[in-house]
Amino acid sequence: MAAPSVVGGALRRIAPLIAALALSACSSGVSGPLPDPPTPVTAEEFTTLVASESPAVVNVWASWCLPCRSEAPLIAAGSQSHPDVTFIGLNVKDTESGASGFMAEFLSEADMIHVSDPSGRIPIDLGAGPGVPATFFYASDGALIATHRGVIDEPTLARFLDEIDR
Amino acid sequence: MEFSLLAAAAIAAGAFWLMIRWEAKRGNAAGCALDIWEAGITSAVAGVFIGRLTAMISAGINPFSDPGQILLVRSGVSTVGAVLGTLATYLFLARRDIVGGLDAVAPAALAALAGWHGGCLATNGCLGTESTLPWAMTLDGSTVTRHPVELYAAILLAIGAIGIALWKEHGRPWPLAPTGVALFVAGGVRLVTEPMRISLAGGPILLYGTGCVIGATLLGWSAITHTRSPA
C-alpha cells in the first residue's frame, strides 16, 4: 500500500482555507436595495453644479473601471474629512444598473452627489481626455484649479483639497 | 504603476546603488555572503507588495476577488505594511549574518529613502503646508507658497546616509550602531517633517516614533555590549 503523499496531505489541510477564501472572493459585498442611478446632466447643468458657492471636487468614474474601485475609498474619505467641499461623482459611459451597483458597493460611505454623462464628453471637453478615473478641483468661484488624470493618491488629494478649501 | 512613480522609484534605486558603490570602495564589510544590491531591491519590492496588500485589505478590497488592483500602487501603499515587509524580507535574506547585513545596508537604505522623497520632483508632490519662507514654492497655477517638505526630508536623509557611511569608514563603529543610527534618522526625519505634510488622516506617527525608539535602543545596546566585552 502506497504511503499518502506529503503534498496531498498538505493540500487536504489547507483545503478549508482555500474554500473560505474562494467563497469570500465570490461575495459581492452588496446587500439591500440599490441606490438610484446618477442623474444625467448636460454640460451646462454640470457647469452650474460646480459653480455653486462652495469649492468642489469632481471625480469621474465608471463601474467598468477597475482603478475607480481602488480609488473609491480615498474619495469617500476625502468627502468625509472635508464637509465644506462639495464632492460630485461624474459617472461616464455606464449603464444605470452598473452605476447603482458600483455606488452601493464602493461609494456607500461617500458624502457626495452623483450625476452621469453617458457620452463621456464633459471630462474630455474639460481637458482630462477619455481616460477614467480623473479628478477635477474647483475653487468656490467655480474656477478649475487642477485636473488629475488617472488614479489619485492620498497626498495629491489632500494637497489639492487644501488648495481649494480655504 | 504610473510613470512618475516609476521615476521616483528609479531615483531611489539609483541612490541605493550609488551609496553601495561608494561604500564598496571604502571597505564596506557587506555581510560576506550577501549581495546587498539584490537583497535590498528584493526586499523593497516585497515590501511594496505587502504594503499594497495591507492597504487594499484596510480599504475593504479583497485581493483575491480583485487581484488586478494589486498593481494599482498609486491607489495607496500602507507605510506600516511596506516597512515591516521590507525589514522582514531583508532579515530573512541576511539571516546568515544579520548584524553585518544590517550595518552594510544602513547608509544605502537611507540614501534610497532620500531618493524616494527627492522623487517628488518627478511626481510633482513635494509641497506641504503653507509657508512664507524665502524658498517656499507654489503649486502650478496657485499663489499659495508652501514648504517643499519632501525636499527637506530628502536632504536630511541624504546627510544621514553620508554621515553614517563616513562614520563606518573612519570611526569603526560598534556592531549594530550604524543600523541603530539609521533607524533613528529615518524615523526622526519623518517625525520632524510630518507637521509640514498635508494628509487626510495624518501619517503613521506611531511607526516613526517606534523606529526612533528602536534605533536609539540598538545604539545604546551596541555601546553597552561593546564597552563590556573584553578587548
**Number of helices, where a helix is a run of at least 4 consecutive DSSP H or I residues of chain A:** 6
Architecture of chain A, CATH level 2? 3-Layer(aba) Sandwich
Q: What radius of gyration of chain B results from the CA coordinates?
A: 18 Å
What is the terminal-to-terminal distance of chain A?
79 Å
Radius of gyration of chain A: 21 Å
Cα(first) to Cα(last) distance of chain B is 52 Å
Mean pLDDT of chain A: 84
- The share of residues in helices of chain B is 55-70%
In short:
With 166 residues, chain A is of the alpha/beta class. Chain A has helices at residues 6-26, 43-50, 66-81, 96-106, 121-125, 154-164, and strands at residues 39-40, 56-61, 86-92, 113-117, 134-138, 144-149. Chain A has a 6-stranded mixed β-sheet.
Give the helices and strands, then pairings:
The complex is a heterodimer of chains A (166) and B (231).
Chain A: H1 6-26, E1 39-40, H2 43-50, E2 56-61, H3 66-81, E3 86-92, H4 96-106, E4 113-117, H5 121-125, E5 134-138, E6 144-149, H6 154-164
Parallel strand pairs in A: 1-4, 2-3, 3-4
Antiparallel strand pairs in A: 2-5, 5-6
Chain B: H1 3-24, H2 36-58, H3 79-93, H4 98-118, H5 120-123, E1 137-138, E2 145-146, H6 149-170, H7 177-193, H8 205-228
Antiparallel strand pairs in B: 1-2
Helix pairs in contact in B: 1-2, 1-4, 2-3, 4-6, 4-7, 6-7, 7-8
Notes on the protein architecture:
- The complex is a heterodimer of chains A (166) and B (231).
- Chain A has helices at 6-26, 43-50, 66-81, 96-106, 121-125, 154-164, and strands spanning 39-40, 56-61, 86-92, 113-117, 134-138, 144-149.
- Residues 20-28 of chain A have low confidence and may be disordered.
- By secondary structure, chain A is of the alpha/beta class.
- Chain A starts with 5 loop residues before the first helix and ends with a helix.
- A 6-stranded mixed beta sheet of chain A has the order 1-4-3-2-5-6.
- Chain B has a domain at 105-228.
- Chain B is globular.
- The model of chain B has no long low-confidence stretch (mean pLDDT 90).
- Chain A binds chain B through residues 21-22, 24-26, 29, 66-67, 69-71, 73-74, 77-78, 81, 145-146, 150-163, 166, and chain B through 2, 56, 59-62, 64-66, 68-69, 72, 74-76, 125, 127-129, 139-142, 144, 197-201.
